Every structure is written in structure tokens, then in C-alpha cells.
Amino acid sequence: MNTQLSGVLAAAKAADRAALIGYLPAGFPTIDGAAQAVQALIDGGADAVEIGLPHSDPVLDGPTIQTADDIALRNGVRTRDVLETVRQVTAANPTVPVLVMTYWNPVDRYGAARFAADLAAAGGAGCILPDLPVEEAGPWLAAAEELGLATVFVVAPSSRDQRLATITASGTGFVYAAAVMGVTGSRNQVGEMAEDLVRRTRATTDLPVCVGLGVSTAAQAAEVAAFADGVIVGSAFVQRILDAASPEAGYAAVRELAAELAEGVRKR
After folding, report:
1. Phi-psi region for residue 191, left (φ > 0), alpha (ψ -120 to 50) or beta?
2. Which residues does the Swiss-Prot or TrEMBL record annotate as the active site (predicted)?
């Protein structure tokens, strides 16, 4: 259990609002500029942030994040760069939880215990592991628990109640509820299945349930905040950087959107 992450989510709940969790991949728009991009999320009002570990086959990510991952990989990003970005962000923002969002393969190749140790040393709050089956997570969970790292698993609308209970029993920090079936990306409407998924997930756990996949506007953030403990936004931030004329303009656009979304989660 990561007390920093739990504290931030509890503080948002005590203020009768949802937390805003922003995502951007490491190495994007540049290796050196990634920390600045994440800083823009925080400056705009994100309560916690996720830093993505770019992957060559991001099967759960839509075209927007795939594009950003491709840019990051062409920039030469490595796992050590992801950890360095975490270190820079946590050093500048010691009260903001920083998680790494990653597919399991890069962690497995790096070494689960080594990755956990290096993430903790960098000040990270934990990991979101969307494709790691809980039945195979024992070595990671042991290392993470020893180091006080949160392990966040993903549930989907297709998850049956018994499966939800199995997943939530193994996770810590919060549960990541995928609002829609399919890959990540901004949508005109957030999934109607999201509220039902949150209700069913809460029936199995006392962990906060945070919803991601599809939120891109303050109105959508407010809609999700009405029934979720946290609102997770990624693709919309990535798109702002992709659309910008320069990295600096991208950071400003990210900061602006984060401020709008932070206002949205306060209108639950």
C-alpha cells in the first residue's frame, strides 16, 4: 500500500470530489521534455499522474497514444529514461503521487524486483499493470509490498463479478475501471457501462475506483466524477501536444486542459 497515493485519494473524497489523474508517456514529446509535459499536468491541477512506459505493441492503446509511443521510441526512450522522468517529477512535486503505467513485458525483461526497487528509489508511488494476470503477479506483488508501492489492476465492463473480486483482492492503491470496451482514446460520450462497472467493483472492495478511457472534456469529467473516486485522462493530453506548434505550446495546452478538467471533477 502506498500511503501517499491513498492520502491524496482520501483527501479528494473528504473534499467531496473525485481526484484527477493525468497520463502522459515518457520520452514524449522528447526524452528531456517529458518531465516538463508531466509538470504541466500537475500545474494545471492533476492530483496524481501516470507516466507511461512506451511499448512497441501497445495493444490496449488507441491511435493517439500509439502515435506518442512511436515518437518516444524513435526518440530512443529506454526504461531508465522512464525512471529518470519519475525521479525528476517526484523531486519537483514531493506531495504528488507518480505511477508508472506499463505493460508487463518490459518489467519482466528488466526484472520485477529490480524494477520495483528502482521505481521506489526514484520516488514512484506504484505501477498500473493492465495486462498482468493477477494469478501471475506474485513476484511483483511481493516486491511492491515490501517497498510500499501500489499495484493497480484494470477491470473492464466484461469482467464478471467473481473475476472483479479476484482482481480487487490482489490490487492496492485504487482500481482502474475501463469505462468502455476497446482501446484508449477520447470519445464524444463516456461509456454508459462505466457507472455499472464502478458499482459492481465497489461491491468487492473498499479501494477507490477510478475511471479512465474516453474522458476529454470538463463536462465528461464532471459526469464521471459523479460516480467515481477518480477520473483518469490520457489521450486528450497527448492530443494537445500532438496538435501544438511547439513543445512549449503543447505544455501550455496540457496545463490549460488539466485546469479545465480539475474544475470539472469538482462539479460532481
Report:
1. beta
2. 50, 61
Helices marked H in the chain: 3-14, 34-44, 63-74, 79-92, 104-110, 112-121, 138-147, 161-170, 193-202, 218-225, 235-243, 247-265
Is 50 labeled as catalytic in the residue annotation?
yes
Annotated active-site residue in 47, 50, 69, 223? 50
Give how many domains the chain has, as a whole number. 1
Q: Per the residue annotation, which of 47, 61, 69, 195 is the catalytic one? A: 61
**CA 94 to CA 98: how far, in whole Å?**
9
Instruction: Please indicate whether residue 61 is annotated as part of the active site.
Output: yes
Residue 180: predicted pLDDT: 63
How confident is the chain (268 residues) per 10-residue block, as mean pLDDT? Answer: 91 97 97 98 98 81 87 96 98 98 95 98 97 96 97 94 96 90 46 86 97 89 95 96 97 98 91
Q: Could you give the CA distance from residue 138 to residue 167 in angstroms, rounded to a whole number?
A: 13
101 phi, psi to nearest 5 deg:
-100, 120
- Grid coordinates representing 99 are 505511477
pTM for this entry = 0.94
Residue 59's pLDDT is what?
61
Half-sphere exposure (CA, 13 Å, Cβ side) for 218? 13
Can you give the residue range of the structural domain that contains 75? 3-265
On the 0-12 / 13-18 / 19+ scale of CB atoms within 10 A, 94 is exposed
Write down the pLDDT at residue 182: 43
